[in-house]
Write a structure and sequence with these properties.
Blueprint (H helix, E strand, L loop, with lengths): L21 H22 L3 H78 L4 E9 L7 E5 L11 E3 L4 E8 L3 E6 L6 E6 L5 E5 L8 E2 L13 E4 L11 E9 L8 E6 L2 H4 L2 E5 L16 H7 L1
Antiparallel strand pairs: 1-2, 1-12, 2-5, 3-4, 3-12, 4-5, 6-7, 6-9, 7-8, 8-11, 9-10, 10-11
């Protein structure tokens, strides 16, 4: 089977058609561009067209910038959030440090005030005093006890008075190698001989146990006792030095059906809040009572 030559097209395909050369086209369009640039620079004929094109293209430009701005804003948001978190944590830590420093300063100031009060109390005493720190209270809720520290060089003696900056709070009852037990004036039936500062009248203060105020017992209804009277140790028992503040009278109830008044007293605040105390040396023993003269039986018979 042969090929019919007469059926083939004589013209080459469109792809192989050739027009002006590339150099000629480059030169032509270059000249046109230069001419347009010259005309535009000289007469500004394309300014209106340029503005129109810019106005039409501007929304498209802004729309094209939106993804980038959103990404940048999101990154800035997360960066600022992390910075705020870090700054917030740093500020909280700084606030805690400042709060702890303020609390330590306040505690130091209170401790300095308590020690100054103890120093003033010790200077006003005639005997010696040894400072000690309150460790803890007694475990028995029905017993009014404190336990204080005892150093190796401290010589505590049972029966010694224990005071703070406000006055008497109790008495040493037991002494151990490393600590000592203090019975407070609020202990049930704990007795302290006192005198009323205003009148000098001697009475006895008795503790009544936890949750109750101590009271003055066996004070008659006609005694000169008023609310607000200050109570001082009378030293009549030879255990407590004289003129230590013990408390003040807060309630006086005179009953018509009894001879004695019911008198309640508020102890010194240190009974419930003392942190440092002074242990006083026991005062010198009182001179012995004189012997009672007794007449022999035989002599009385002789006299008869």
């Amino acid at each position: 089977m042969g090929i019919n030559v007469t059926s083939l097209p004589k013209e080459p395909p469109q792809f192989f058609r050739r027009g002006p050369s590339a150099v000629a086209r480059l030169t032509f369009f270059g000249l046109i561009s230069i001419a347009l640039m010259f005309v535009d620079a000289r007469f500004r004929t394309l300014e209106t067209l340029r503005m129109a094109i810019a106005t039409v293209v501007y929304p498209l430009q802004q729309l094209a910038l939106v993804p980038g701005e959103m990404l940048e804003n999101g990154q800035a948001f997360f960066d600022s959030r992390d910075e705020l978190r870090a700054e917030n944590a740093a500020l909280k830590s700084q606030l805690l440090s400042v709060g702890q420093a303020a609390q330590a300063t306040n505690a130091a100031e209170r401790e300095a005030a308590r020690l100054a009060a103890l120093l003033g109390a010790s200077q006003s005493l005639q005997g010696k005093a040894q400072i000690s720190q309150v460790l803890y209270g007694g475990r028995d809720p029905f017993s009014q006890k404190l336990f204080i520290r005892r150093n190796a060089n401290q010589n505590f003696e049972p029966g010694s008075a224990v005071i703070d900056g406000n006055g008497l709070i109790g008495q040493l009852t037991r002494v151990h190698p490393l600590l000592a037990e203090v019975t407070l004036v609020t202990e049930k039936d704990f007795a302290v001989p006192v005198k009323i500062e205003r009148t000098g009248a001697r009475v006895v203060l008795f503790g009544r146990g936890p949750g109750q105020l101590p009271e003055l017992r066996f004070v008659t209804n006609n005694a000169d006792v008023v609310e607000g009277d200050v109570l001082l140790t009378s030293s009549i028992d030879g255990l407590f030095p004289g003129n230590l503040r013990v408390g003040k009278i807060v309630r006086v109830a005179r009953g018509a059906d009894t001879v004695f008044s019911k008198i309640e007293c508020a102890p010194n605040p240190g009974v419930a809040s003392a942190e440092s105390v002074l242990v006083l040396d026991r005062p010198a023993p009182l001179p012995p009572r004189p012997a009672t003269e007794q007449t022999p039986v035989n002599e009385s018979k002789r006299r008869r």
